[in-house]
Amino acid sequence: MRTFLHGCLLWCVLSGTPAWGGAPAEPLVSPEVQLCLQHLKPAERERAAKALGPLEELPLYRVQLEVDPETRGVKGRVQVEVLARKHPLTELYLRLTPNAQGRRVTLSDAKLGGRPVKLERPEPTLYRLSLESEPVPPGAAAVLDVAVEGLVPRAAAPSSGAAGGLLGGLMGGGGGRPSGGDHGAFSATADFISLVGVVPQVPPVGEDGRPWEGPQGIGDLGLYEPAHVLATITVPTGWAVHATGVPMGEVPERDGRVRYAFAAAAVRDFPLFVSRGYASSTATVNGVTVESHYAAADQAAGERVLKYATSMLAEFERRLGPLPYTHFRVVQAPLSGGAGGMEFPGLVTIATQLYRGAAGASELLGGGMQGMEDLEAMLGMLGQSGGGGGGVLGQLNGAMERTLEFTVAHEVAHQYFAGLVGSDPILEPVVDESLAQYAALLYLEWKHGKKVAESVRQETLVGQYHLYRMTGGKDGRADRPTGHFADEMEYGALVYGKAPLLHHASRKLVGDAAFLKALRAYVDMYRFKWTCKDCFTKELAKASPANASALERLRTRWWREAKGDEDLGKPRLESLLGGFEGLEGLEALQSLPGMDLEALQGMQGFEAFQEIDAQSKELLEQLIPGLMGE
């Protein structure tokens, strides 16, 4: 294996190549592409070629990186080979998303066919190479080689109080007004380094010839044309690498480090992560190797995540069609800013907080975690003790486990939307996020029944919108670019909360059979392609022609208009606390006259409430009128 890797993969990265070379006389598949194609199921290669054209003509990235966890440094080289298909190539763009938060990664020593070239930097995250003096003719490929070097920032520490603590999560996922950022996509802790975006990639180009927009500080970072990747990543002994693709081996180096290799085919992104002290569990579903990678201390949760992921893949493949890849990985990651997970082709991350929270709320209360004092005070107001596994704590444990399961379902659904069915996550985030969110609800219904799915719909989608409205947020158009939202809370309420309910309304209109038929047809139609904002509505209209006009009116109402209050009603305590029915103290809280907090003085726990920090107290003062239905 070592001889093979050094003789093939490393040669691919380091060998000199011409600036552009003519296409072969016959359609031959190179050894490099053959390595990459191992990532596709044999039966899926023909379907991919039907959608994308000859697979040997896709862009090819050759990646060689070294990571030093002690210094948080990453360096190496990336070579990208892009074929000019129908028209000559006169320019080439590279997107480097970590630089949206400051210049964290630099590109230098650029060469085109071994000749030095100068890269322009028109935007913080965008590099450009002009080829106008020597355009690459159709049938030939531009081969650009660049040095990459970056310093990974330390991960942000969890915030305290209601805005970032446990109380904020209980009240719908945030509580405050989170600022923009990358949610830890490019960050480092003592035992985990997230290197999302460190590999510069060619962005899609619009009809005007301009590259698609880069990250805006809210929402996802980007998505790319399907491409092949051959990558080697070197790390110190004791560290492991997680990436998309087929693992090609681990090679011990003479200096004591270990070189990991991966080959990926027809992927829209290539994420990289480095961990220490992780364990893994593996299962197989329909020819897909499913891996769960997690901190060794969180093994129980990591194994449950594996069970969830395998069950979800089986259900989605049965109803939406097969996924094309032979490997799928779920990686525990210390995400920040309220993110529950991140999606990439063939790999997703799930926030560490969800692994730890699902272990049991009673353990969390004894663990000294930030926000626990706030929760203790709130439990006191509801007439609950702070210990033991019954009452609110028992139900809280179940709710947190449902959150973990729902989050995994959402990220697995992203393998279809927009991993397989591509859409613009910056200009049109509502397209893939709404379908991933609703597909996760469908899975819960298939697996646990309609009652459970409806409960999660109320607490996760409706509740998120209600919380946003109660804290002063205004309803608005969900169908807009990520950069047009004021903050993450508005984005979450409208794109993750309200927008997915279009699909719920459409399903009620056309019926289950027509809805699922259209969803499957939509996936089949746009596999490996780019979809549009009304493409799924058109598939629904094909499945239910009599409702075509009504379906378009629904899309306008839920995505373009501000009718959320009319459609979802006034906020109520039940929509925020979901499955916490029958708790002692809720009836008393709901029956309070008016919104004067002085009326709470006779309730158990009010003295503790008075001791809550100012930020948490202010949040509760804003919430209580809404909780009472005022």
Automatic annotation (TrEMBL):
Name of protein: Aminopeptidase
Entry annotated with the keyword Transport: no
Alphabetized PANTHER family for the sequence: LEUKOTRIENE A-4 HYDROLASE
InterPro entries referenced in this protein's UniProt entry, alphabetically: M1_LTA4H, Peptidase_M1_dom, Peptidase_M4/M1_CTD_sf
SUPFAM superfamilies, per database record: Metalloproteases ('zincins'), catalytic domain
GO molecular function: aminopeptidase activity; metallopeptidase activity; zinc ion binding
Domain Peptidase M1 membrane alanine aminopeptidase: 400-547
Keywords: Aminopeptidase, Hydrolase, Protease
Highest taxon in the source lineage: Bacteria
